[in-house]
RNA polymerase sigma factor
Amino acid sequence: MTGEVDTISEETRLLIRVRDGRDRQAFAALFAHYAPRLKAMLRRGGMGEAQAEEVVQEAMLAVWHKATQFDPTRASASAWIYRIARNRQIDIFRREGRPVPDELTESPPPEPDAADALALDQETRRLRAALEALPPAQREMVERAYLGELSHSEIAAATGLPLGTIKSRIRLALERLRHELKDLRQP
């Protein structure tokens, strides 16, 4: 492997696995990573909840079907996937006769340099390890609240647990994570 391949993001590696081997686990990981982020971007861009979810589904389906067109020398997985979702959103807005928000026509932010990417990768690994070290009940609440972007009330409705229990588990989990990761990002 060349040094250039070693500096690509984990998401780009996953997309290459989808492109080259139709790897369903890699696609599931991409979906889990990008779906909430794409939905948030689409919501900020003026789409309603249901329409944003539909566009995310369509965009990720396009990622699966068009993965053979992905070229990591031309774009990162992130830029490629966000572009697919933005293009779909622009198509819908035009069809509906709505103005396209300016932020949708901007190019994605530049890729971080190798040192920043390495630091971010190391921090991500530490965060994943810290999350895995949490008691399962606490980890589940943190994942639902922060990765699933659910409110405490929505978690209570989904799990049947009292709201106070959910808040306590999240608070305890965040305290443990803060303690575990206290040396990150300190000057």
